[in-house]
Amino acid sequence: TRCPIAASRGEPRERTGPVADHEAALKAMAEELDADGLGLDSPALAAIGHRVVHGGMHFTEPTVVDEAVLAEIERLIPVAPLHNPANLTGIRTATALRPDLPQVAVFDTSFHTTMPESAARYAIDVRTADEHRVRRYGFHGTSHAYVSRETARLLGKAPEDVNVIVLHLGNGASASAVRGGKCVDTSMGLTPLEGLVMGTRSGDVDPAVIFHLTRVGGMSVDEIDTLLNKKSGLVGLCGDNDMREIRRRVDAGDEEAKLAFDIYIHRLKKYIGAYYAVLGRVDAVAFTAGVGENAAPVREAAVAGLAGLGLEVDAGRNGARGTGPRLISPDGARVAVAVVPTDEEMEIATQTYALVRKPN
Ligand code: AMP
Predict the structure, then answer these.
(1) Taking the model in full, what pTM does it have?
(2) Which residue among 125, 246, 326, 329 has the highest number of C-beta atoms inside a 10 angstrom radius?
(3) Among 21, 36, 108, 125, which one carries the catalytic annotation?
(4) 240 is a catalytic site residue
(5) Which residues on adjacent β-strands are paired with residue 63?
(6) Contact yes or no for 342/146 (Cβ under 8 A)
(7) Residue 327 in 3-state DSSP?
(8) Is 229 in the pocket of ligand 1 (CB under 6 A)?
(9) CA 134 / ligand 1 centre spacing (Å)
(10) Any idea which fold 3-136+345-356 has?
């Protein structure tokens, strides 16, 4: 089990090893901080920030956790069965360890609550949708917020002055259209299953695929849930979900891996085109997360043929190794194409600190 540590002096640390539960993991993190004299007992600790995946429509901002907030996160478990229970455990454990500190929930959905209804609603019966809270919430919001802001900074502009398409391509993957710092559309929906082709998730499919697999394939709803979330995407298409391995196979002439790669790119390109149209004017396209930051062939293929839209990558810049935010488009390009490493932990810490230091 990986145990990521965001140390306060800016150097991330990681400790690898088995941990029994959330409490043991938090204590291990505290020990790492202790080495810096900034452990869990430290008076310098201002708050504890938590990533919470689903905040529904309710939480548009980072929020100091109280009983009512815990109850609302719990109420959202049916739409985030894998994540919200674990997030609650983390909050409860941290509260037990430092009951005097504010615990702040930073929601993956918050950044997307600015989406207009035209983007957030599915075209299904309104009463049914409202009764069951079926709408598009979007996820990876902390990353989309951070990366869109960092992209503006890379361009030397204020976030209010730029329109950005953010492509968060990790094992989970999502795209967002950000106008003047505010999200206007994103590819994930009610759950993180919609949108792009991911490591193990299908992304968009005709919903009738589910009826067909039930009626004709004899599968149960749970089996289809597992199929679409865990056995689809790149792994379903070619048996691998690591882009490094897929590229190695493509380079070795493997047809199955090539088709998986092509399907991944085709979907990605469709979203770039869609969000270009949604935004009308695009200043930058930013690639982030494991695949987006590291896989030059993915970036090259995603914008190939889009010179007419002002989108191009410079082969030398795209292929060069780098760690910080960087431009990969040629000088003078109409649309900047950039690699902007995401930092969700830093964003959660920044938002948490901004909230607790606000005068009441
Ligand atoms: P994330 O969810 O952001 O941690 O991304 C994890 C994914 O990034 C892995 O499953 C790989 O597919 C991909 N990845 C990580 N490093 C590289 C790399 N050097 N080249 C290509 N893909 C990579």
Answers:
(1) 0.93
(2) 246
(3) 108
(4) no
(5) 105
(6) yes
(7) strand
(8) no
(9) 31
(10) Nucleotidyltransferase; domain 5 (3.30.420)
Q: Using the mean position of ligand 1's atoms as its centre, give its distance from the Cα of residue 252 in Å.
A: 20
CA atoms of 127 and 125, how far apart (whole Å): 6
**Helix residue ranges per DSSP H, the chain:** 22-34, 67-75, 84-97, 117-120, 126-131, 141-154, 208-215, 221-230, 233-238, 243-251, 255-279, 289-294, 296-303, 315-319, 344-356
Task: Determine which helix (DSSP H) or strand (DSSP E) holds 105, and give its type and residue range.
Answer: strand 103-107
8-state DSSP, 341: -
Pick the closest to residue 235 from 197, 199, 196, 195 (CA basis).
Answer: 199
Residue in the block written with tokens 């504890």: 48
pLDDT digits (tens, 9 = 90+) for 2-43: 444 545 556 677 778 888 887 788 888 878 777 777 778 888
DSSP H or E run through 49: strand 48-52
pLDDT along the chain (360 residues), means of 10: 51 80 81 77 88 93 96 92 89 92 96 98 98 95 97 98 98 97 97 96 98 98 96 98 98 98 98 98 98 98 97 98 95 97 93 84
Of 75, 28, 19, 29, the residue nearest 52 (C-alpha): 75
Is the CB of residue 214 below 6 angstroms from any atom belonging to ligand 1?
no
Report the separation in Å between the CA atom of 243 and the middle of ligand 1, taken as the mean of its atom positions: 6
| Homologous superfamily in CATH for domain 156-343 | ATPase, nucleotide binding domain (3.30.420.40)
Domain with CATH 3.30.420.40 in the chain: 3-136+345-356, 156-343
